[in-house]
Amino acid sequence: MSKKKVLIVTQEMHPYTALTEVSQIARKLPQYIQENGMEIRVLMPRFGTINERRHRLHEVVRLSGMNIIVDDDDYPLIIKVASLPEARMQVYFLDNEDFFKRKHIFTDEDGKPFEDNPDRMVFFCKGVIETVKKFGWAPDVVHCHGWMTSLVPLYLKTAYKNEPLFQNAKVVYSAYAGSPEAAFSDAFAAKASINNLTEDDLQAYVSDGKVRLHEGAIAFADGVVLGSEAADEGVADAVSSADKPVLEYQGEEGFGSAYMEFYENLTEEEVEGK
After folding, report:
1. CATH number of 5-273
2. For this protein, what is the EC number (predicted)?
């Protein structure tokens, strides 16, 4: 039997970014599942806070050179890679000077969310999918960690639904506490409507005139993980009404086996359904 392939898409990962719930899980989980027989790929943004020399990032020329369209503008996508020697694991970084060069991740020095966070999210989510297409690597599970990945479930189930590499992929979304969506403008839906999508396709991401990233991702995911002990407002309601598999909050220790079992159950449903 071939190894199951798991794509980890994360907005943060220790030691490349500061220690948070997201970065800690995104660091430990791929190593655990790789050591327990699954094949992995990890993709994250190359934020300007990441020291390329210290972490030995280098460009992957064969993967770079694409342009990603965001709000009718073209932005070059550069792919870099680094290895975690203690984990025998490679991490791929999506880079663009306009979106990721700054020395702060999601907010400025005064704690105010960047105005272009929606554009950065669209660039990253679409860039992830296009990069995996260049890999020519068909994942069995796509596991998205954090609000910045929240458009991946939508894109895989709509704009890329006929892409052969993702035909059998189960999409998992981990909802963690906190997101800057309150700062998103009314233009969010128009920006996020890539390819042949319309603003109507993003209705799950807007409720009562406000952007709800977690709720939209939950609507399009095949399975949901509660990544934080205290969920954001609306997440619990979205989970209960979605009627799909849910992995409850696992804490930061000993969670790996629960995640693997969750993956196995999701992919077994796919086999049984054929």
Report:
1. 3.40.50.2000
2. 2.4.1.21
